[in-house]
Amino acid sequence: MAPALPDGDAAPDDGALPASVLAGAERRAFGVYLHVPFCTVRCGYCDFNTYTATELGGGASQSSYASTALAEIDLAGRVLAAAGLPARPVSTVFVGGGTPTVLPVDDLARLLGGVRDTWGLALDVEVTTEANPDSVTPESLAALAAAGFTRVSFGMQSAVPHVLATLDRTHDPRRIPDVVRWARDAGLAVSLDLIYGTPGESLDDWRASVETALATGVDHVSAYALVVEEGTRMAVQVRRGDLPPTDPDDQAAKYELADDLLAAAGLGWYEVSNWARTPADACRHNLAYWRGDDWWGIGPGAHSHVGGVRWWNVKQPRAYADRLARGVSPAAGRETVDGESAALERLMLGVRMAEGLPIADLPADARREVAGLVADGLVDGRAALARAAAGSSTPGGRIVLTRRGRLLADAVVRTLAA
């Protein structure tokens, strides 16, 4: 079951944006997220807004989805133009899900073509699609590259069969080296997504998964701690005692092991859950989220953000298609993030990145907490004590988390936000 949409104000039927979104727009990059809400099988831990074929109602078929999403792309182009925003070519496109590659490559190419026709693409555009290892072939990956995709992120999750079975993942882990090779042969950059802390996963199991990922030679790895979300099949299994609950200490040990192995292989962390071989290998689309740039989210349940205004679409594919067919924005609600809320969000996101957050961006009360965080080993003292440029009257240091600080990032935020 996908989580409920947040509370917020009513969104206008025409999707119109307030004049406030113009402030600083020329300094913000613009990206597009395309949500494909379909999977062949629902994994027991997943609470994303996704649907299998048997869960879809009328008017929400996979075969018609690209045309429906193109209608929102057209709406988005009109709304942004009407708001008076400067023309900005799209710098990143991310196709997520669900499993985007359950759609035919021609449909994915049509969606990217709609983005290109509406806004144009930057010369160095990053275009990523998520994929399951069992949802691609050498031919489909080559066709994605020919259509303009530059990057693929495979949901590997684990290399250990019993861990994949607990997660309800259906792919054969022996296929991972093959799909990575096929993608690279097609000219695509490759990322592998891993999950640690699955019930029944040993430390040796996790080591095997990370080492298997590294053996493929990929330049980007994401590793996320399993969260057992309410409403999922796994939550029911844990509640009944069929599976043990996740253990924070176990997950911390696995994070530290992954960080050691990835660093030894030449991949450095650039965000708490993401490692890349070089800065150029980082996922620029996700960096845009963490830096507060603008993006429009296309699809059921997708979220958007432009100039401090955030909104979210209706979740059900049938309701989404119906609203667009009637010429109505699919937005279910929206909010304006400003003042203290904006400062807290900037803090929460900024401290998660290896580039850190300027101490000068913190209010005076929060700056006084930095020394204690350094003393507790949560914040890098050298980064925090860096001098300002000559003649500057503001602090020059940055909040950069140590590895212990990464494990306790929420505690660092609470301290600085108190």
UniProtKB/TrEMBL annotation:
The Radical SAM core domain, residue ranges: 24-271
PROSITE patterns found in the cross-reference section: RADICAL_SAM
SMART domains linked: Elp3
Classification via InterPro entries: Aldolase_TIM, Coproporphyrinogen-III_oxidase, Elp3/MiaA/NifB-like_rSAM, HemW-like, rSAM, rSAM_sf
GO molecular function terms listed in the Swiss-Prot or TrEMBL record: 4 iron, 4 sulfur cluster binding; coproporphyrinogen oxidase activity; metal ion binding
Family from the record: Belongs to the anaerobic coproporphyrinogen-III oxidase family. HemW subfamily.
Protein's name according to its UniProt entry: Heme chaperone HemW
Source species of the chain: Cellulomonas algicola
